[in-house]
Amino acid sequence: MTSEIKADKWSPASGTAGTIGDSGDTFTVPSGVTLNTSSATLSIPSTVITSQTEKSSLADADKFLISDSAASGALKYVQKSNLPSGGLVKVAESYSTSEVANVTFTDCFTSAYASYRLIGMFHAVSSGTKLELNYKNSGGTLSGSSYQYLSEGQRIDSGSSIENAANGNYGDSGGFELTYNLDDSSLNSPACLDLVFYDPRQSTFDHKNFNGMISHYASDNKFYTQPIAGRYKDSGDATGLIFTISSGNIKRHDVVIYGLTDTGN
Predict the structure, then answer these.
(1) Which pick of 14, 23, 136, 202 has the fewest CB atoms within 10 Å?
(2) Which pTM value belongs to this model?
(3) How far apart are CA 147 and CA 175, in angstroms?
(4) What gap in Å lies between CA 57 and CA 52, rounded to an integer?
(5) 1-5, 46-50, 199-203: range with lowest mean pLDDT
(6) Pairing between strand 147-156 and 140-141?
(7) In angstroms, how far is CA 24 from the centroid of its own chain?
(8) How far apart are CA 56 and CA 216, in angstroms?
(9) Who's near 96: CB < 8 A, 6+ residues apart?
(10) Dihedral of the alpha carbons of 241, 244, 250, 253, in degrees to the nearest 10
(11) CATH code reported for the domain at 88-260
């Protein structure tokens, strides 16, 4: 049997289709050999991708194969670091349909981002309670009389009567009071939050600020919508947040925190 075939061209014996080898055979292209298919149609099996190990996160040096339309479809690669990126990067999340005493984010604030956006909702176990927020760090909750906040919005009742509603504390408060009296029915609106925290990690200056919008249904059978702003007026490094209810537990919650990449630090 011939162990080597030398020919300038292989062609099908009949028709326009041919086969190299049989199922289970392996053909090796040695190192240094060029297999030129630049002017041909090359079909590859889907297992080239599907049989590989999945990667759940990307490094800046990871590369993607592309066809460059500006170079007649030439194959090139682009690094992840050169791809356009969105303004929001998820840094923390918490979800539960079970009762919890508090919702704590221990290290959601890092040196990677200057500002952060929080989107979430909370249900209270007990009616007539309030959702409260504190900063925290590795030493625990940042307490003391250093929290100042103001919210002034509107409320509407079943008779479509609209009223102004204000809530705030400029003096000696031990935390941010985010809502009025919450309703405890899961059928009614939870406390819905959209808040932005500005440079909570800086420790050189006082006044770690946040602002945003909150809506909720209250135990007085009125729906509230309110802008809110607050600041922690003492120095110190805040690396996290803790949400609590003024009395009783949090019935359920769903919260996501994003780092804002377009603000830098």
Answers:
(1) 23
(2) 0.69
(3) 5
(4) 15
(5) 1-5
(6) unpaired
(7) 46
(8) 36
(9) 252, 253
(10) -20
(11) 2.60.120
Q: What integer pLDDT is reported at residue 229 of this predicted model?
A: 92
pLDDT at residue 265, as a whole number: 44
pLDDT band per the 50, 70, 90 thresholds, residue 142: confident
Query: Residue 127 carries which DSSP code?
Result: T
What are the tens digits of pLDDT across the range 221-232?
888 888 999 988
Chain segment 73-87, per-residue pLDDT in tens = 888 888 887 776 668
**Domain map (residue ranges) of the chain:** 88-260
Q: How many residues are there in the chain?
A: 265
Residues ≥6 apart with Cβ < 8 Å to 189: 183, 215, 216, 217, 223
CA–CA separation, 140 and 40 (whole Å): 65
On the CB side of 157, how many CA atoms lie within 13 Å of its CA? 8
Report the DSSP pairing between strands 88-96 and 208-217: unpaired
Nearby residues of 166 by Cβ (< 8 Å), 6 or more positions away? 150, 151, 152, 153
How far is it, in rounded angstroms, from Cα 122 to Cα 130?
A: 11
Residue found by looking up tokens 């809502």 in the block: 179
Q: Position of tokens 């002017």?
A: 39
Q: How far apart are CA 210 and CA 260, in angstroms?
A: 14
Identify residue 156 by its one-letter amino acid code.
Answer: I
DSSP class of residue 69 equals G
Q: What is the mean pLDDT of residues 154-170?
A: 68
Q: Tens digits of per-residue pLDDT, 22-35?
A: 999 998 889 999 98
